[in-house]
Structure formats: structure tokens, C-alpha cells
Amino acid sequence: MVKAQLKKSRFFTKVATSPHIRRHIIASCTIFFLTNMWLGIGVNQHYGSVLAREIDTQDQQQNETSAGVLERYERLKIEYNQELNNKDFLEKADSIMGRLQQLEGYDAYLTIGLEKWPIQNQMGFYTKVQEEVEYILRLSPSKVTVERKEKAELLLLQAYVNSRAITKAQSLGVEILQATENIKTATTAKNYLSNVYAYAGKYQESMELLTENLEYYINIKDTAAQIVVLNNAAQMNHDINQHTQTEYFYKRAEDLAIESADINNQSLVYSNMGVYYKTIENYEQARLYYEKGLDISLQMNDLSAMAQNLFNIGNVYYEEGNFREALTYYNESLAIVEDLNYEYPKALIYMMKGTVSMDLGFYNEAYQYLMQAKKINSLNSDVESSLFLYDKLSILKQLTGDDEAAFEYLSNKTDLIENKYEAASLDSLNQAIITFQLNEEMLRLENSAIEYEKLIQQRVFGLVLIVLLGIGLSITLVLNNRKKALIEKLFKNYKTELQAESTRKNLTQKDSSDPTNNPSEKVLDKLFFNSTAELSKPNDHQGLFEQICKVVLEDELFRDVELTLVKLAKTVNSNTTYVSEAINSNLGMRFNSFLNRIRIHEAQKIMLEQDVQIEQVLLMSGYRNRSTFYRAFQTETGLTPREFISSKQK
Question: What's CA 210's distance to the chain center, in Å?
Fold first, then answer.
């Protein structure tokens, strides 16, 4: 150690005494200190300039005027190449409008809003539009010109209508009509108000407004506006199941669009005709019109219409049970919508992707999609979408065994229906529909409450299982008693029906020569609770209806997994509209409901009579896949197929 220290000391002594080494050391130290001094000056200058800029910005903002803020907005538009639907642009524009609120620059605020709100309405940001327009109309009505005020009110009315805020929309629409002297404003308000009345079930008031507008547009020879009104009239008649009138108005709108070479409105009409044909379950016609609309949107390079038509085609495939093809179209539509940054359409696509994933058994993916839709929908306050979401989420949680979450979602749905009933200004017919929905959901909620209560009890029992095992089993039995009683009662009813049907078959064979004997009528009597006298009442489609019953029931066409409304219409030498009306006018239901009831009844008979697997049952009763069969069975009976089979074994 000592030697090492001596050696080290001698080295430093040598370094210190060497002139050559001393010069290098002095030069290096000089460079080091100069470099650090230069860096220090640079850093101080940098932070000093940043601080100066911040102070300048604060001074500028303190001295900023509304005109200056408006200039900032114009520069922002140039920066984003006038792409007002860009998400970053809209966020910065919102910040600028916030600054105008601080400055009380109402006129500049409204100038920006009148450019921004139509885009946000198109993108589905209805809540944002409502907040900002309500703000400006509330704080500065006297400082806004009549023309600009009416433009803002119409945009607010559009946001109310699109978000189904029926009461607010009706109140504002009437207010605009009473106050305006501008015929263009009045006709636009009437168009929106006619939609509001249709949503509220006030179809006569809706039709009166549409007729007034149509007459006006014919007088001024505004073809485009005529097409829009005819399209709206068709949609309203569709809502009240007036199929002949619906097709009449759509045909007029289509002819007018073709004659005037108005491809924008032609695309709109095709899209709505697709919706109509999908609703009456004529899927081939629906797909045909959606594809026509898609072709036009491609010609125009209209990405919004393109996404809408792709989504609609996906819905047709979903209704047909072709889930894989449906997902393909949903994904294509979603890619476009994400590029356009349209939030509300994105939520709709996520809802349907979640629904398809659930039907395919991909429960984790389904939950992720539905929650993404829920997150977006929370910003838009769309009641109908929320009802759909809560329903799907409750079903999903039931399928995954989470009864607590299922109960919570179902409670939310019921509360929403109650709020809708209380808030909406509806006529008696629409109130009756909502009351029926509410009662139906209350029954489902009651059943879910039993399951939820059972789950809570099981958790409590798990903690004190050793001490209270006997009590726990007793309570569980009590909680299950109602459901067991329902299953046993249903089983006995179908067993009795089966015996009665066997007896009826024997009587039918004996009385086959009797011309008054109608096997189809007897089956309908049992399935649809209609008396023979009621079924024999004359109507426009009675003969066609009897023919439908013969081929579906007696010839057992219901077993055909490829059976569609189009195929049935061809079988009875008619068209889809007449077939749909014949079923609806005689039974009060659509084709799919009619077919499902017959198929599920047959499935119950097979399960009672034979010991076969569920996969065989669904094929024998006319179903293509398991998920569709399960959904239809539970809708018709309130039980799953396995629960029904369990009741048979007991």
C-alpha cells in the first residue's frame, strides 16, 4: 500500500514538473471553462426567450379582441385545408369558442358555430351542438340577427330530432313556425317537425305538414325538396304498416330522382327503400336497393353514404343468419367511419359487431365492442341506442353467468323506458306500446331479480356454509320454486297439447271427407290463439292467407332452412308485400315471428316425443344454426332448450 502511494505521488510530481504536460493541462482546462460558460449563456438565453414568449402570449390574450380570435380561427381552417370534420381541428375550434365565451364575443361565436354545427350534426355530436346553440340563444338573443338566429335554431332542432329528444324538438319546432316570416325556414322546420310527430305516433299531424310542404315545393318546382318530402312520407307510412302507400311514395321519389338526374337524392331513396324491405323481411330486395345506393355513393365518392350502405348490407346478412359475411361489411363500414371521425355511426357499428360476436359465442369480444359503443353513446344521449345496448349487455351477462351485472343492466333499461314514458309527449297508441314494453321489461327484471337474489344468497351462504347449510339449501329451493313451477306447468301444458293433438289427428282422419274440416285452421287456433270464427272473417288477403297456411303447415315448408319471405311468395304465386300483409292482417305479426312460432312449437314436440340432441332438433324444426334457434326458443317460451329438456326429464 505504501509503495503504491509513493509511486502515485512520484507520478503526480513528475506531471506537475513537466512543462510539456503542464501546457496541455492548462489548454484543456481553458477549453472546458469556456465551453461551460457558452452553454450557460445559451441555456439562459433559451429559457429567457421561452419566458418572454409566454409573457407576450399572455399580454396578447389580455389584449385580444373577438376579431382577433376570429382571425385565429380562419388561420386554423387554412392550416387544416378546410377539413372541418378533422378531430384535431374541431378540438382547437372548441378551444377558440371557449375563448370567445370569455370575451363575450357572441357574434364571432355564432359565426364559427354556424360553420361547425352542421358538421357536428352530421358526425353525431348532437349533445355538443345542443349545449353550444342553447348557450348562445340563452345569453344573447337580442344581439343576434333574426336570420342567424333562425339558422341556429334549425341546427338545434336537427340535433334534437336526431337524438330523439321528442319533447324539446316539438316545443322548438312549434316555436319556430309561430315566430318566423321566412318561408324557407318554415318549410325546413315543418320537415323536422313531421319527423317528430311521426316518432311520437302523431301520424295525422305529420302527414299534414308533409302535404303542405309538398304542395309548396311543387309550386316553386323544387324537385330535390319534393324527393325529400316523398321519401319522408314513405317512411311515415312504413311506420304504420301501410305497405301499398309506402311503395307508392318511394316509387314517386325514385322516378323523380331518376328524371332529374339527382343522384344525391337517388342514393337517399335507395337506402331508405332498403330499410323498408329489410323491415318487412324481403332481404333480397333490401340488398338490391342497398347495393344500388352503394354504386351511386362510389360514383360520387361519397364516403359517408358508402359507409352507411355497407353497414346496411351487413344488417341484411345478419338478419339472414350469415354472421361472417355481416362482420365483413361491418368492418369495411367501420374503416371508413373511423377515417371520417363520425362518432355516432361508429357506435352503431360497434353495437352490431358486439351482437354478432355474442351470437357466434365470442363473449369477450362482444363485451369489448358493446362497451365501446356505450362509451360513445354516453356523449350523444340517444335513448333508443341506450335501450338496445342495455338489452344486449344484460343478455350477454346472463350468458356468461354474471347475474348481478345482468340484473343491473336490465334495471337501467327499465329506468330508461320509464323516463321515456314520462318525458315524451306521445299519443295514446304510442303510450300503449311503451307501456307494453315497460311491462315486458318488468317481467324480465322480476325474473332477473330472482336470479340476482339467489346469487347474493349463495355468496352469503358460502361464508357460513358449515353453520347454516340447511337454511341455505332451503332458501335456494324457495328462490328456485317459481321458475321450477313455470317449467313444470309449461311441460304439462305441452304434454296435454300433444295428447289433444293426437286425438285431433284421429278425428281429422275420420272426418277427412268433411269439407268444413280445415287442419291448418286448427293448428293456427292452437298456435296463435285465434278462434275459427275470427280467422274466417273476410279481408283482402283471406284466400292468400289460407294458401300460405297450407304450404307452411300442411306441406311442412317451415322445415326448409332456406325458407324466406321471397321463397314463400314464389311458392304461393304472389309477391312479398301481399304475403307480408296477409300474415300481418290475420295474425298481427310479421313473417319471421309467424315462422318462428311454428318452428319452436315443432321443436317442443320433437323434444317431448323423442330423445334427440339439440343439434338434430334445430335442423328438424327448420333452423340453420344454434344461436338463432336458442334466441327464438327463449323469445317464444321464456326458457332455454336445455331448461325445457330438464323439465321433461323430471
Answer: 27
Helices (H), 140-242: 146-162, 166-179, 183-199, 203-219, 223-239
Whether 509 maps to a domain, the answer reads yes
Phi, psi of 80, rounded to the nearest 5 degrees: -100, 20
CATH number at residue 266: 1.25.40.10
> Which cell is 72 given?
385565429
Count up the domains in the chain and report the number. 3
- Alpha-carbon gap, residue 519 to 508, rounded angstroms: 7
Rounded CA-CA distance 10/251 in Å is: 109
Is the predicted pLDDT of residue 390 greater than 60, yes or no? yes
> By C-alpha distance, which of 390, 351, 395, 387 is closest to 372?
351
**352-378: average pLDDT:** 88
| Arithmetic mean of pLDDT over the chain | 75
Cell of 67: 376579431
User: Structural domain of residue 397, as residue ranges?
Assistant: 382-463
CB 493 within 8 A of CB 648: no
Residues 415 and 493 occupy one common structural domain: no
- Which amino acid does the sequence have at 263? I
Question: Domain boundary residue among 364, 390, 405?
Answer: 364
CA distances from 593 to 286, 596, 601, 630 (A): 19, 5, 12, 14
Q: What percent of the chain has pLDDT over 90?
A: 12
Residue 108: name the closest of 126, 96, 119 by CA: 96
Closest by CA to 494, choosing from 636, 370, 390, is: 636
Residues in CB range of 530: below 8 A, 6 or more apart: 524, 586, 587
The more confident residue out of 641 and 489 is 641
- Distance between the two ends of the chain, CA-based, in angstroms? 96
Q: Which of 357-368 are b and which e, b meaning 16 or more Cβ less than 10 Å from the residue's Cβ?
A: bbbeeeeeebbe
Q: Which residues neighbour 592 within 8 Å (Cβ) at sequence distance 6 or greater?
A: 281
Tell me the CATH number at 406.
1.20.58
188 to 156, 176, 234, 593: CA distances (angstroms)? 12, 10, 18, 38
Q: What is the rounded distance in angstroms from the CA atom of residue 214 to the CA atom of residue 182? A: 17
The pLDDT tens digits for 596-639 are: 889 998 888 888 888 888 888 888 889 887 777 887 888 888 77
What pLDDT does 337 receive?
A: 87
Same domain? 409 vs 314: no
Mean pLDDT, residues 40-59: 44
Specify if 266 maps to a domain: yes
Under the banding of pLDDT at 50, 70 and 90, the label for residue 43 is very low
pLDDT digits 0-9 by tens, 522-554: 555 555 544 333 444 445 677 888 889 888 888
pLDDT band at 156 (very low <50, low <70, confident <90, very high): very high
Query: Residue 410 falls within a domain, yes or no?
Result: yes
* HEC profile of 305-362: HHHHHHHHHHHHHHHCCCHHHHHHHHHHHHHHHHHHCCHHHHHHHHHHHHHHHHHCCC
Classify residue 342: in a domain, yes or no.
yes
Among 162, 216, 208, smallest CA distance to 187 is for: 216
The tens digit of pLDDT for each residue in 284-304 reads 889 999 999 899 888 888 888
